[in-house]
């Protein structure tokens, strides 16, 4: 009512009520200590992230005292800048209890709202564009819970209890928004960042994480601290962290990086998994060779897989794909490896655009099959049959349930094939390689791909992509004219 509206007005403006009423009747309202922040405005997840916030780097110091449980403690130091003045900061966080928040080294009051999944505080002065600040968050306790959009599992920090011979383990499985279950983050792919990840584990355990291992040093009670540097920006969900009894297999580096740079090769196999599990990973170098020929140089300085034992989907965690024992096939490995370009290097502007990850990664399965002498037309016909059996929709998703559906993967891949058949393979290769570099420094949208297709390949390719992107019905099977 009116009284409420007046109170809100007073709160917002800090105005003192000046009416004819006696002064004593006017309640003195303390100024609001926490000014709220605006989320990024994702169409699928409207509450995620903070508009105008740009996290440059996450420096993490994590302690996994009891692997296999959901206990986690540590410190996250975020290096921030802003693209608009920010009087309040609001990080996504569903995780362990916050013990302290420091702004450039000075303690500040904060509010940890588990329901909203936000950690909010006001810096002493607003963060302005061009300024840099460092936020330190100390936390300890149990990680938060966030259900997967369509599978019966929780995304985020996974706890795998000890079973039989196998020790308890932990790893991250965070797409789309599970990183906030265990770290305070700007949890949106449009704000990729670099990471330094230090993980301290008990005796007998190994930690692995996205990026290059920088050091391994002794910790108290026979434990060890492993440090990894992910020097190229990645989306928060693509951060891999693993704690397990691992055997690390190093392979010779392969010169598929930018300018022919060597890409370090290492894979992590949990002790005690079936030996056949390793077979698929022997193809990693060949996959990197085939895909870098189509997509351009591999975007990171290391690559490999970390194998996990639960029956879950594989995930394209940066530099270190997360591969379940049950999905240890060359086809899945090709798919996750392709995501290193499409998803990890190129990032999404909005979750509704996720077909730009899944369609390209699925298309890589065809490129691989052809490199192995298989009949590509058969693969495409198989996709088309599958897409015809399932409900279809335009490529841009409108609901959470659609993010990882057949349309995102299969219709997305068919859309790229529809572009390919309008040109020759040399032109298609230049087109794929160009997409990676041309849009490399901003998050991608379907509109960007349409515009890029028109400029690079012309009207026919553009019209084909547009039909596949926008038609409510499934367009006809793409074929060479
Ligand atoms: N991006 C992952 C992949 O295609 C799949 C994630 C699946 N998640 C899900 N909720 N269905 O490799
Ligand atoms: Zn995928």
Q: Keyphrases for this structure?
A:
globular, binds arginine, five-stranded antiparallel beta sheet, alpha+beta, binds zinc ion, single chain
Q: Describe it for me?
A:
The protein is built from 9 helices and 21 strands. Helices cover 25% and strands 27% of the residues. The chain is globular, with a radius of gyration of 24 Å. Strands 5-4-8-2-1-12-15-14 form an 8-stranded mixed sheet, with no helix packed on it. A 5-stranded antiparallel sheet has the order 9-10-11-16-13, with no helix packed on it. A 3-stranded antiparallel sheet has the order 3-7-6, with no helix packed on it.
In short:
Helix content is 25%, strand content 27%.
Topology:
Layout: H1 2-13, E1 53-63, E2 71-82, E3 89-92, E4 97-103, E5 106-107, E6 110-113, E7 118-121, E8 133-142, E9 146-147, E10 154-160, E11 169-173, E12 193-201, E13 206-209, E14 212-218, E15 224-234, E16 241-244, E17 246-254, E18 263-270, H2 284-295, E19 302-303, E20 305-308, E21 321-324, H3 330-339, H4 355-371, H5 376-389, H6 406-420, H7 425-438, H8 446-457, H9 459-470
Parallel strand pairs: 1-12, 18-19, 20-21
Antiparallel strand pairs: 1-2, 2-8, 3-7, 4-5, 4-8, 6-7, 9-10, 10-11, 11-16, 12-15, 13-16, 14-15, 17-18
Helix pairs in contact: 2-3, 2-4, 3-4, 4-6, 5-6, 6-9, 7-8, 8-9
The chain binds arginine and zinc ion.
How large is the share of residues in beta strands? 25-35%
Terminal Cα span = 67 Å
Unique bound compounds: arginine, zinc ion
- Number of continuous helical runs: 9
Largest sheet: 8 strands, mixed
Mean pLDDT: 93
Radius of gyration: 24 Å
Helix and strand run: HEEEEEEEEEEEEEEEEEEHEEEHHHHHHH
Taken from the alpha-carbon principal axes, the silhouette is: globular
Q: What is the spatial order of strands in the main beta sheet? A: 5-4-8-2-1-12-15-14
Q: Show unreliable segments.
A: 1-27
